[in-house]
Amino acid sequence: xxxxxxxxxxxxxxxxxxxxxxxxxxxxxxxxxxxxxxxxxxxxxxxxxxxxxxxxxxxxxxxxxxxxxxxxxxxxxxxxxxxxxxxxxxxxxxxxxxxxxxxxxxxxxxxxxxxxxxxxxxxxx
Amino acid sequence: xxxxxxxxxxxxxxxxxxxxxxxxxxxxxxxxxxxxxxxxxxxxxxxxxxxxxxxxxxxxxxxxxxxxxxxxxxxxxxxxxxxxxxxxxxxxxxxxxxxxxxxxxxxxxxxxxxxxxxxxxxxxxxxxxxxxxxxxxxxxxxxxxxxxxxxxxxxxxxxxxxxxxxxxxxxxxxxxxxxxxxxxxxxxxxxxxxxxxxxxxxxxxxxxxxxxxxxxxxxxxxxxxxxxxxxxxxxxxxxxxxxxxxxxxxxxxxxxxxxxxxxxxxxxxxxxxxxxxxxxxxxxxxxxxxxxxxxxxxxxxxxxxxxxxxxxxxxxxxxxxxxxxxxxxxxxxxxxxxxxxxxxxxxxxxxxxxxxxxxxxxxxxxxxxxxxxxxxxxxxxxxxxxxx
Lengths: 125, 388
Description:
The complex is a heterodimer of chains A (125) and B (388). With 125 residues, chain A is an alpha+beta fold.
């Protein structure tokens, strides 16, 4: 499984078969947002475009859009976030995932950052 | 993901709704407590032209701490004005709709700056002191306010913008315990009373719905005072984020969001700022419109909304009764005390009765909402004559 990151602070784990992936926001992003009180995840079957709106995360203060790191079709939104949106604060890069999807084009992963590059990117912010 | 938080907080519109844009350069200034906030772990954001602490340990924790203990807020971005000649009260009554002439020394009132149509230019606190009339105005519009007041104030009346003073707010049920240890005697003040304590000017007031105080302090002493207050076991520093969620729960309107020149005191539910004599006599900006609304009712009303589910409805969301657009949300968020989303907005008066079922459009999704009495969380002011 390979993990990639976007400059918009989403992460994407691509399964070994290269066909499916899991998406969430980074630990850095949840820390910046503060207390998360609601997450709107896409319904299964939703087609999303790379860079397009995919989900909404709401902190006490404000709503923020989450973008799709790649294009694809949503398999599942994380049902656990409905009852406990604070999972994004406590486990942003594990149990607090937002949705899974089937990739349209593996080539879209080119240009995303690996963990080392993302860490360097965040350190420079 | 897209960061809306910074934008939502940084652009309290000033009068005229001029948006902040790239080619509109604003120099961000530092408040006297800037280094102190950073040393205490605050995350700083740009707000009203200053670097301000948005949060320390987290908005929910800070909010709940304030409701149970005491929170220290830095509100030094607000404008402190002193008008100090004889005749100031009479002159101010031509600008403000409140009874200023009848305001005794060491008492304060909530008041409004109004335009000729009765539109709200700012809300403010006005106090009578031995040395003049002291006003605290909103940070985002303080220079516009000064210009406006100066324009209408007779030339011979001096107005001092007290830029060498910082302003702290200590809010919460244990504020009195903590502050009276540092400044003995403050416990004798009741809600909306104020007095000098050495070089501190302290009022028993605030904008969280809790008992508490606002403390005007010379800027070169504010760091020492903040440190001393936070050394009290009841006190923690609190950021602007929790200040906003506290005031929303308290049903208090925020200028630039719930109040602006398109709103008037009657629609906004702020007629308590216009005392009986002023209502009857008029003689303030917008008096004709306001007197008409007072007798006939205003077409819209500011209301509270309990939003069902967990998803907050934010500022700008449209409010519907069936298919009819009846209003707009002006403040909305998640209530840490109630653990549910709450909002404030204007709706047509026909839909303003508590209990009315409405819907709020949030990005194409309809959330059900019920018009709710405000405050959402009861006020706990230390009022004179009130039984505890």
